[in-house]
Structures are given as structure tokens and as C-alpha cells.
Amino acid sequence: MHRLYTLFFRYKRPSGSSVAGSSRGIVGQPDRKFTWYNFSIYIPMDRYKNLQGNSGITSYSIERDSIIVAFKGGHTYKYNHAITGKEHVQNMKTLAREGRGLSTYISRYVKDLYAEQVS
Hints:
- By secondary structure, this protein is of the alpha+beta class.
- Helix content is about 20%, strand content about 35%.
- The protein is built from two helices and seven strands.
């Protein structure tokens, strides 16, 4: 299972470069110091087993220092050691592999401590 995500990042133009082409920020305002770029990537995701049958999580991807979790509503979040904390991320990885309790763990202990919203 793979999911397609569009990521946005900005690049600071070198001094003296012209403002040609599309140099608008995400909010639609001209941005003379930065140029916004976006690109799409496929992230391999494992289907969440959902052994209790009532989880709001559909899939996940485990990385070395982080975990990416996709929810039923379409939002996907990345949790990492730096923002979420190593202990929480390790617990989330274990729960994801077991297929039980990940959604409850996130809502009880992690809440909004995600590193980034992927989609």
C-alpha cells in the first residue's frame, strides 16, 4: 500500500535574483525573499490491523526516528523523536505493529505533539 502526498517547501533565493515566474506564498501573497515549491512523493504504508475494529487509523509507516500515521479522515501526521519524544514514538511503533491501541495512545498521551502534518 502506498499513499501519494504533496509536500511544500520554500527556498530562499540568492541576493540579487529576480522575482520571475511563480513566486507566491501558500497564502497567495507575493513573497520576494522566498519561492515556494511543491512535489509529490509516494510513501510506503502498512495497513493498520485494527484488531479492536473501531480505530480511526488506516495505515502507518515506520522510519528510523519516526512514525507516519494516516487517519480515516484523510489527515496524515509524522511523529518523531525530536518533537514527540523517543519514548512515545517507540510505544507508537510497537502498538502499530500489534494493530491495537495506537489511536487511543495518540489521543491520550501524544495529542498534538506531531512533527508535521503530511496531508
